[in-house]
Design a protein that fits this description.
320 residues, mainly alpha, 11 helices
C-alpha cells in the first residue's frame, strides 16, 4: 500500500529508509531508564537527615544519637576503690621520702636551715646595724647573746652577724658603680659585669685566706664560713657611702667619707672578731702574753686592716 509519508511512493510499499527506521524504532521497547542523580564528589558522608526525619535510621545506629547501642553501656572506674586508695597512699609516701632525701642532701652542701638564721632581720635591726657600722665608737657591749647554747636571731641582737645587709649592700654597690660609670660616659653591660665579678672574686679570696690563716694558726673558734662572709660583706656599706660622696662632692668628698668608713670598719672588725678569734681570757679583757694568743691578735688585726685596702681598690677607679 502507499506510503503516507513519502510523496513519491503512494501506491507501492515505500522503500524510504526514513520510514523503515521509524517502524523499527516503534517495534522495540523503550530501554532507557533514569539514573539517580550523581552525588557530590566532594561530600565525605552521606546525608541521612531525610532518613532520620522519615523515621528510618541507617543500620548500626539508634535513636539516641547515632552511636551503637553497645557504647552506651555504663563503664566502671578504671581501678577499684581499694586499689586506687592504696596507689594514692603509696605515691604520697614516695613523694615524702623523696623530699626528705633532697632536703638532706641539700643541707649537706648548702646549710639552708642555717641560712634562715642570718636573714631573720627586721627594719629596726637594719637601722641599728647600719648605725653601728658607721659609728661603732659609742657601742659598749659586743657580746653575742645566746639562748640555750644557741645564738639568738639577729633581729633580737645587734651584735649577731647577718647576711641581709651584706647581700643588699653588694647589690647596691653594683648599682652605684653603674651610676658612676654612666656619669663618666663609660657605662657598658660588660664593664658592669666585670665590676660585679671582680668584687665577688675578691670576697671569695678574702674568705678563703681567712679560713687558711685560722687553720694555720690552729684557732678553735665558733666562726663559720657564713660568719666570715657576713663580716667581710659589711665593708660594702662604707664603699657605697664613699661612692655617693664622690658623685655628689667630687674626689674630696670621696676621700673624706671613705677614710671615715675605713676607720669605722677597722674598729668594728677588731671589736667583733676578737671575741671570736682570741681566747676567753682575752675576750674578758685580761692581758694574755702567750705566743698563740699573740698570733691570734695579729690575725685579727690583719683581717681588720685588709678591709680598707679592698674598699679603696674596688672604688678608686669609679670616681674622677
Amino acid at each position: 500500500m502507499g506510503c503516507h509519508k513519502c510523496p513519491w511512493h503512494r501506491e507501492l510499499p515505500c522503500a524510504c529508509p526514513l520510514w523503515w527506521f521509524k517502524a523499527q524504532e516503534s517495534s522495540f521497547p523503550a530501554t532507557k531508564r533514569r539514573l539517580p542523580a550523581a552525588s557530590d564528589p566532594h561530600r565525605l558522608f552521606e546525608d541521612t537527615s531525610a532518613a532520620s526525619s522519615s523515621g528510618t535510621l541507617p543500620p548500626g545506629s539508634n535513636s539516641t544519637g547515632g552511636a551503637p547501642s553497645s557504647s552506651l553501656a555504663p563503664q566502671g572506674p578504671f581501678l577499684p576503690d581499694p586499689v586506687s586508695s592504696f596507689a594514692a597512699a603509696y605515691g604520697s609516701s614516695l613523694a615524702s621520702q623523696g623530699k626528705e632525701l633532697v632536703d638532706r642532701n641539700i643541707d649537706r652542701f648548702i646549710p639552708v636551715t642555717k641560712l634562715k638564721y642570718y636573714f631573720a632581720v627586721d627594719t629596726v635591726y637594719v637601722g641599728k646595724k647600719l648605725g653601728l657600722l658607721l659609728f661603732p665608737f659609742l657601742h659598749q657591749d659586743w657580746q653575742v647573746q645566746y639562748q640555750q647554747d644557741t645564738p639568738v636571731a639577729p633581729r633580737f641582737d645587734i651584735n649577731a652577724p647577718d647576711l641581709y645587709i651584706p647581700v643588699m649592700a653588694f647589690i647596691t654597690y653594683i648599682l652605684v658603680a653603674g651610676l658612676a660609670l654612666g656619669t663618666q660616659n663609660r657605662f657598658s653591660p660588660d664593664l658592669l659585669g666585670l665590676q660585679a665579678s671582680s668584687a665577688l672574686a675578691w670576697l671569695i679570696v678574702e674568705v678563703l685566706a681567712i679560713l687558711l690563716s685560722l687553720y694555720l694558726v690552729t684557732v678553735n673558734t665558733d666562726l663559720s664560713t657564713v660568719d666570715l662572709v657576713a663580716f667581710s660583706g659589711y665593708k660594702y656599706v662604707g664603699m657605697i657611702v664613699g661612692l655617693l660622696a664622690g658623685l655628689l662632692f667630687g674626689k674630696m668628698g670621696y676621700y673624706l667619707l671613705l677614710s671615715w668608713c675605713c676607720i669605722t670598719i677597722v674598729v668594728f672588725m677588731i671589736r667583733t672578731l676578737r671575741l671570736k678569734i682570741l681566747s676567753e681570757a682575752a675576750a674578758e679583757g685580761v692581758l694574755v702574753r702567750g705566743a698563740k694568743n699573740q698570733l691570734r691578735m695579729y690575725l685579727t688585726m690583719a683581717v681588720a686592716g685588709l678591709q680598707p685596702l679592698l674598699m679603696y681598690w674596688l672604688t678608686f677607679h669609679l670616681v674622677h
